[in-house]
Design goal:
Keywords: Cell outer membrane, Membrane, Signal, Transmembrane, Transmembrane beta strand, Transmembrane helix. This protein is mainly beta. It has one domain: Porin (Beta Barrel). Helices cover about 10% and strands about 50% of the residues. It has 5 helices and 28 strands. Strands 6-9-10-12-13-14-15-19-20-23-24-25-26-28 form a 14-stranded antiparallel beta barrel. Strands 16-18-21-22 form a 4-stranded antiparallel sheet. Strand 4 and strand 5 form a beta hairpin. Helix 1 crosses helix 4. About 45% of the residues are buried.
Length: about 475
């Protein structure tokens, strides 16, 4: 006996697989256009059956793409160990008051009279707990806390070459989180452990064209590391197995910004961040796989096959405004668009004796974000900040996965900065991030039905920053 998977008239690269009446001599369990069955293949189909195991491998790869980690505004993190954590990043592209503008809007570097360095540390603690309901069909628990402690660190530097020409660099991460569920939880066939970790460098330059217009541009160099573990319901042998994929890659992109200052104390900023493509390649490894399913993979030649997963970090456009109401009080805000519909179309390729390639459509929607904040200088050396932000959800309940439980998000931040001297400014900030209830209603053969929501789904961010002007 052998489990197998076919799809009626599905095009995979140059190959086309069609359902054959002689392939199965027993009843099938149909899910959407995918057919899962158990039985004895006919002689006519036996050889083709082994080659079609590659389609199973390809389907597993597409499943892994659904299982990419994150909880924060898609995978984008506005929390980058900067003082504007205290405004929930409101006004980021127009604020331009410290070296963090090298990333927020490179054109804003022209507002810094001297060279400056800013460093920040940002520990966080996330609480993500799933609450399964009675319609969940797989036994097990709720998975425990899938997040926990999250370290963070970033650095920013701006070099003032001339009053109008500036160069800068940012080292940090603005993309990715990780999640880890307990091994026996009821959603283990959808996700066990998912990580996309990034480390990025953003070298930039800016030039002031006149007294009201500055422009800036630079590059994105992003190192990404993927580790994904998904449970397998080994119905042939009875028991649980798992599949691991792990790899790293470097992707490249660009960013650009414009800063407009029509009058003193009022400015508008626009920052564009391009998409970056990452290509992860690995030979998946299995754990606790039973002998029958292992033999099927061995016979098909797919045991050592390489799985290629292509991901796209989406385009982003941020439009910000800043205005001084008085000498001590200012307001600021953002509108942000992120093209998550492109992230939701990953490519998966199985490279073996018969290579197959497909593009999955995870039905993601582009997202919109809005933020509003204020800064109040209540003492010549002290500034207090407060902000609020809201981001729309990129995915619906039916499409949402426990590895990617994205939902609408609400941020509330506050912070204090202290001018220790003319050259050194210290800051502390806190932000509460509510990740939404992230309702899930998924059903899949062998993986079962998983239904419920996240009764607690939040991250608490803390940061400490120091800025040196020299």
């Amino acid at each position: 006996m052998i489990w197998f998977l076919t799809r009626r008239s599905i095009s995979l690269g140059r190959s086309r697989y069609k359902d054959s009446g002689s392939l199965l001599q027993e009843q099938r369990l149909t899910f959407s256009n995918w057919d899962f069955g158990i039985g004895m293949p006919s002689k006519m189909a036996r050889k083709r059956l082994l080659s079609r195991v590659s389609v199973v491998w390809l389907a597993i790869g597409c499943g892994l793409l659904v299982a990419q980690p994150a909880h924060s505004a898609g995978l984008f993190l506005t929390e980058m160990a900067t003082p504007d954590l205290g405004t929930a990043a409101a006004g980021r592209a127009a604020l331009a008051v410290d070296a963090a503008t090298a990333f927020g809007n490179p054109a804003g570097m022209t507002r810094l009279d001297k060279s400056q360095m800013l460093a920040g540390i940002q520990p966080a603690y996330g609480i993500t707990q799933f609450d399964r309901d009675s319609e969940t069909t797989i036994s097990g628990g709720n998975g425990g806390n899938a997040l926990g402690f999250i370290p963070g660190l970033a650095g920013y530097y701006v070099y003032s070459a001339t009053p109008d020409l500036k160069f800068g660099i940012t080292l940090g991460s603005n993309f990715g989180l990780s999640s880890r569920y307990q091994s026996n939880w009821s959603g283990r066939y959808y996700a066990l452990q998912e990580e996309i970790l990034t480390l990025s460098a953003f070298p930039v330059a800016a030039y002031r064209l006149n007294n009201w217009l500055s422009v800036g541009a630079g590059a994105q160099i992003i190192y990404g590391k993927l580790h994904s573990r998904t449970g397998i319901n080994d119905a042939l042998d009875g028991g649980d197995a798992s599949l691991d994929v792990s790899d790293h890659d470097v992707g490249y992109g660009g960013l650009a910004g414009i800063l407009i200052e029509p009058i003193e104390g009022t400015r508008f900023g626009i920052t564009y961040t391009s998409q970056v493509k990452l290509d992860f390649k690995d030979k998946p490894t299995t754990n606790n796989l039973g002998p029958l399913l292992q033999n099927a993979l061995d016979a098909s030649g797919l045991t050592g096959a390489r799985l290629d997963i292509g991901l796209t970090i989406p385009n982003q456009v941020m439009v910000s405004a800043y205005h001084d109401l008085t000498d001590s009080l200012a307001i600021m805000g953002n509108v942000v668009w992120q093209q998550w519909s492109e992230f939701g179309k990953p490519t998966v390729e199985v490279q073996s004796t018969t290579s197959n390639k497909a593009t999955a459509n995870l039905n993601y929607d582009d997202t919109w974000g809005f933020a509003l904040g204020t800064r109040y200088k209540f003492h010549p050396e002290w500034t207090w900040s407060l902000g609020f932000a809201f981001d729309t959800s990129p995915i619906s309940t039916k499409e949402r996965s426990p590895a990617l439980p994205l939902d609408q998000q609400i941020r509330v931040g506050t912070g204090i900065q202290y001018a220790f001297s003319d050259r050194i400014t210290l800051g502390v900030a806190y932000e509460y991030l509510n990740l939404g209830s992230a309702d899930i209603d998924r059903s899949r053969p062998l993986a079962g039905t998983l239904k419920g929501d996240y009764s607690t789904n939040e991250i608490h961010w803390f940061n400490m920053t120091v800025a040196w002007t020299f």
